[in-house]
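Input:
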Amino acid sequence: MIVLLIKNFIRSKGFLVGLAILFISGMIGLNIGKQFLDKNRDIIEKTAHFQKENIHRYVQYMDKEMGLLLYYVRFGLVNETPNIVGLSIGQRDINPSLHSVTIRNLEEQKYTTDLMNPMYQLIGNMDLSFVIIYFFPLIIISFGFNLVSEEKEEGTWSLVLSQTSNPQKMLRLKVGIRYISILFILFLLLIIAKFYLSIPFDIYLITYILTAFLYVSFWFSLVWLVISFHKSSSQNALILLTSWITLTIIVPALMNALVIQLYPIPEAFSTVLESRDGYHTQWDKAKEPTIEKFHQLYPQLAHFQHPKNKDFSWLWYYAMQQMGDETAIESSKILKEKIRKRENLSKTLALLIPTIHTQLTMNAVCSSDMANYLKFVEALEEFHKQKRMFFYPKIFSDTPVSSENWDNFNLEYFKNQPFINLYMVLLPYIITTILCLLWANINFGRKKYTL
Amino acid sequence: MLIANNLTKKYGEKIALNNLNLHIQTGEVFALLGQNGAGKTTTINCFLGFIKPTSGDVSINGVSVVESSSDTKRYIAYIPETVMLYPNLTGVENLAFFSSLAGFKYSKEELSSFLTKAGLQESAHHQSIKSYSKGMRQKVGIAIAVAKKAMALLLDEPTSGLDPKASNEFSEILKELSINGTSILMATHDIFRAKEVAHRIGIMKEGNLVSVIEAKNISANELEQLYLQTV
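Output:
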């Protein structure tokens, strides 16, 4: 029977078209991922090259004062981009994977990034995750919405019912064939992705594969549930498409609105303003209080003093820059805390919504989520602090520029290995899928098989 | 053996079947005549377990359809008025599929012989159903029913759409099945086919079985007259 069901399915026009659409869009998704990785790699390589070149140029021009030199010189920290990011670009297109900063006021520099095409940001990247989350369900719906109703509407159902007391076996085979054909395309794309993007076969790729597999399974269980109500094809299509729109567009939008409502972040604006005011206003103030505050922060630098009767010193200038960060420190903390809370609330709510859960999980395993960026920002703060602490004594003691080996200042890398709680990743799918299947089973049992 | 005891089916206030009693013996062909809406198809659907009677019972080979319709499926074969098949499969493949649903696995030769016996020309056996006429699909339906080797055969206007030659061949198949012990209940508008094939003929009107006649005791013309007077 199964061979004939496969033949019947394969010979239908929609079969090849559906699978071809998935495969082609999946390949486009992989190509977009590859382009992103290449572009990112290119930016990092060029930045590494230009950082060296710039330092050398500035050292030649400003060889007298280290304070002046370090006003200009930038040091880069790279948020290492594993190749698996090519599967799910996530927040990486908005948040930069590389920050080049001077030792001046950090807060403002955090928001200095590449110019992006806003149109791209509006629609998001059509990476493989996008294809899996948005396109796969549509093809699953098109393959399964009329699994029973088609038989009734085409008139074969009465003959089927007269031949067997257990048509559910046939229906299971029919849905099974469609399930395997979709999984075939999914795994084919994942195998191609593994080699095309040179992704190592590790826990992250395995989690990604399991997530995609369970997400597809969830949609099949939802289709199975809807057809178990024995409605007409048009009703099934309407219910399933409404579910798709609800789960992929409406609920995420509502959730986003809820998260913004619960955790508004006026600090995003105030942090920058406070930071700017923090040092700009110092120009018009007496220098002593600024330096005093600076010494309180860094008692180990207390022996460096602003020369009396002088309007300018690098100690005062960098103390003033430091005040920018210090003034905004509270807002910056609150900002990060609220972003973290937003992220946590989204993840908790997403446990009930497979589409969002899939997006967040894929971003997390691909190190392209907000949590990764927050950790990168923390690493950047630490990186910036280390650079300051390294150069402050040299600047304030007028150490000659030539005494420093500037070749040592290469790009540095931040590597984040996200922790994956497999239970939290997989259980929501398993529970929702089992619930759908149980409910469908009750429906099939209750309604029996009638015309 | 097909038995209906005080079989009643109501749709709200409308009575589709009213206290129908029917006993069809092993090897007997019983034809139900009547206008559209007389209750012929409802009777067949009750035997098939497609609809649940309001009261009364139907049984096949001693097993109640109401209580265990799934158990009675193996005793029956069915040919609807319009046999609809899977358009992406050939005639042979459709027969193989429906036979496998019933738990039968036949060789290609056996499948072809069922189709040939049902009157389907050999050149059509491996053609897609899309190219089949209604009559050709009807013949595949006959082959499906015959291949099931069921004890009882339920036919709902089975010769609808068949040409006279095919209709005649179909009658021969029914006779052969009857000789081999298959009980047959056939709903039809074709008075002459009923007279030719059936042992007994029942005339239905508004859900009631108003008369039952032994086919051998009446000519086709008399049957037609009786039918016209009754309905």
